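Regression report. Comparing outputs from two consecutive submissions.

Submission 1:
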Amino acid sequence: MHPDCAPQVPLLSIVVASNNVGKIRELHSLFLDLPIEWVRIADLIGRSWFVEETGATFEENAVLKARAATAATGFVALADDSGLEVDALGGSPGVRSARFAHEHASDQENNAALLEALSDVEDSARTARFQCVLAVVTPGEMAPLLACGGCEGWIAREPIGSNGFGYDPLFRVTELGGTSMATLADEEKGKISHRGNAVRQLRPLLVQLVERMIADVHSY
């Protein structure tokens, strides 16, 4: 199935295992050309969704969340676990990126905490990268579909831009000569971001999943 030939009617519904509106919007725009309906898990279960992220890696957390969402809804589920790794902090905040300042921190609080942690670090040592792992779990199947992507950059000393979310205002993209991630339009960001790179790796796997489900229906 070629994306350009994708029908207007969705062939597959996938629940997104996240409460993060910015993350859901990004995923929807990046997969817009595929015949998939993206459903917020909160819309299915009628409340905000929470799973304790006990994994030590992005992959472990992504799989954990996808399996929990499938178990809760019976839908095919996609989960994203992503974050920022800063070399001068030994890879932190890492899997605790959303909770760097404290357990229920806002983006502004996390950005402030990161600037404080790097206050004595010289510019040349502020290298960092965004990492993303996407996991798709199908009901009745244990083995998830997995894709990962990264984006190299460094941490600036002040935020610039109002697009995106999370640490985007502080992140300067190496590939774009130091442009702030938060100044990029969605389409520009999708071309270079960690999530965009993971999506491109996941795309053929999702196409295969859609084709397999169509074949299963026709076999009955």
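Submission 2:
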Amino acid sequence: MGSSMKKILIILIFLGELAANSFAQAPSKIARSSKTARIIDEINISEADVNMFKTVTERKVAELQQHIIIISDKDQPPEKRNLAELEALKLFYKGAMMEVSYIDTGGETIIKTRSIENYLYRLKTLPFTKVIIKYFDIAYVTEFIKGPDNKFYAVATIFQEFTGFVGDNITYTDITQKEIEIVVEQEEDKFYDEKRWKIYLGNIKATETKENLASL
């Protein structure tokens, strides 16, 4: 074999090894790139974020309570009750459901599930001449936990006193403990061209209903 052929063979072998090494390194580079992407995409919150979540949650729960009081008050003008209904709907995550409960004549607690829209509408048309709804105790908010969907969830517990009148007589009254699901997610703010935290009320469960003997 001539010297020229030997040189060509050496060059070909060198190029082949170089290509093999580059190909072997490619998967590790891709893996590092994917890992970096996952770290960047992962959403974390700071202590300041958590404090903000709790403050906004308490405010939104208070707003809901005030709207419900107005909607159920038959002495309020229809326009005010309708506006309160619309404002209450804005607080909720799309598709949220509400458990409503009452104690039947046999002393059994009955629980029904309705959409938030249906619940608020029916609240205006309850078969009482007068309805009074009160809330007591500050809402207790649990810690926020990150879900697999990168949203954060918590539960706010409230106590609701319901009293229904026919004429001047109380015909039904109870106290219900309710648990409100809190949903926190990042949404694109088109005005500021950035993602911002949005906090919504979710499903509401009636966890315990008791007769309000003090009002009877």
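Expected: both submissions complete independently.
Actual: both completed, but the second showed a warning that disappeared on reload.
Relevant detail on submission 2: The beta strands are 97-103, 109-115, 130-141, 145-146, 152-166, 169-189, 194-211.
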